[in-house]
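Why do we care about 3D structure at all? Because function follows from shape, and shape follows, mostly, from sequence. That is the central idea of this module. The next example makes it concrete: a single protein chain, its amino acid sequence, and then its structure expressed as tokens.
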Amino acid sequence: MFIPAKGLDYREFLDALHAQLRFDWYLEIGSQTGRSLAKSRSPSIAVDPQFRIKYDVAGNKSQLHLYQQTSDDFFADGHLKTLKARPGFSFLDGMHLYEYLLRDFINAEAAGTPKSVIALHDCCPFGHGMTTRDLDNIPRGAWTGDVWKLIPILQEYRPDLTIQVLDCAPTGLVVVSNLDPKNKALTKAYDEILSRFTDLTLADYGVEKFYASFTYVDPVKLANDGFQTFRPAAREYIPAEKPLVAATTLAPAEPVNTQKTTVHNVDLYSGHRVLRDFGNDLARCISAPLSEPVDVYVGVHVIDRPLDTGRFRIGIQTEQYLDKTGQPMWRIPKERFRQRHATFYDVLLDFSADNAPAYDFLPEDLRAKVLFGPHIFPEAPITPDFQPTPPVFFGALNDRRRTLLADLQAKGPIEVAPHGTFGRPLDALIAKQGAVLNLHFREGTYSEYPRFLKAYLRGKPVVSEPLAPPLQSDLHYFNLEAQLTAQKTEKIFENLASFAAQHSFQAFLQAALDRARMRKAG
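And the structure:
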């Protein structure tokens, strides 16, 4: 069983490290865009066979030397000796084949001092696909290659080293100290190591054996303790003004406390007032206890990481990334955040299959966690509550919505909820009106299921611009020109009863648990 690194992102850890420590020299192998290099305030040396610099890598350094060549050539050319540079801290993130990283480690250790520290990236994969050595079939997204082998190699051949495996998302950070620049054990055993490890896969070695060989170190605690492992290698230490926020803290998008709602044996967490309202609606769709407890996180984009409760975890991705035509709807989170979402949860539910291309970069094992469909409805039918009153619109107003509202109000009355109406006041307002009006925030064909669920639970039909399949106009909702009657509303709700039963939240939760149990058994 893989144990993914789920703590502080490694970039954030390195940022905090460079903010507090200055080294005589900082060496970085594999700089590419310069994202991590830019944060160093020490005299720095960076090596990459093909730089793609996108950041200000020079502005905060007294010296910066860039070498556009392979790390093997860099060390062979003796540039460190020319500069009279002995790196206090080396960050190795080059070619993701273990023999390359092994040579980089051997050379970096020999170039440093006994007080130096070396960090190795990507040694903690969270799936078999990402560990491939086949350079012609590298998966999109995360690819760690087989550098995981450095952990057992160093443990066996260099037991004198101090090895800490930091729980840095997404693929760990191995920090090695107590170095011995004169030690030749790895160099002497290099051919033996290659004969033993080159064809060895993680499956052959044993995932459980690998993760049992170390215990993750909390990077936040290490940082808040003043980076004690790194301090002997530094020439200057500048204490942080305040500690890092613990990686287990839930981070809502607004200054609102993350709320937990418990129904039967399901805990629903939400970190935003709109999503909190949606979470309360989801709670109404849970009718009985499940076979085991479940944690559900509503709106994974506003939650830094889930709590470590030991329970089965389901994340709900509520954002519409792409519409029916593939048009981007909003700012899609960076790949590393989408990868974190898939990593942190046992199942990630995305309402829209139109969003599927946004997950294509994930390795196969993570992509298998992502399920699609509006599985958020109650199993039992809802009785329609027809009222011969105007529809109600609620939500944020932009120019597009204002224009559409004005056009519709010219044809008939529409109730508009005051901005910031949520929870019980909104439910009470909806109860008085004949329908819920949906106007898209942006042009496109997509479905706003939280709004749709809220209307359905309160017996109100939805009047809307075109929604994406499987929702169909005149079958599941009314178009903007429709004239509502009690008979038409009753027919819509008959159709919705069947649709809701097929997309039951209760059934989805239990099915997710059943699949997980079958995977463990098989």
